Known about the structure:
Elements: E1 2-6, H1 13-23, H2 28-35, H3 39-52, E2 55-59
Antiparallel strand pairs: 1-2
Keywords: DNA-directed RNA polymerase, Transcription
GO molecular function: DNA binding; sigma factor activity
Domain HTH luxR-type: 25-52
Amino acid sequence: MQVEIRGVERLSFRERQVVTLKEMGLSNEQVARRLGLSPATVATLYGRARAKGYQVVIVLPGDALGLPPADEEGEA
Length: 76
């Protein structure tokens, strides 16, 4: 699985860290402990990042979805 954050160039370094951890499913408290911040700071950074408009795209290989491989006739 590959995760891509589109619009990441609009985010500060700390916002990128918070977004990545939040999108991995961590709570504000978990993110705060990992980054040495308060949960309120995590909430503020996450809110600012969301206001700047980023998108998370998850790219899954076909085998992770149980899809058969492409045939030899050029089907993608």
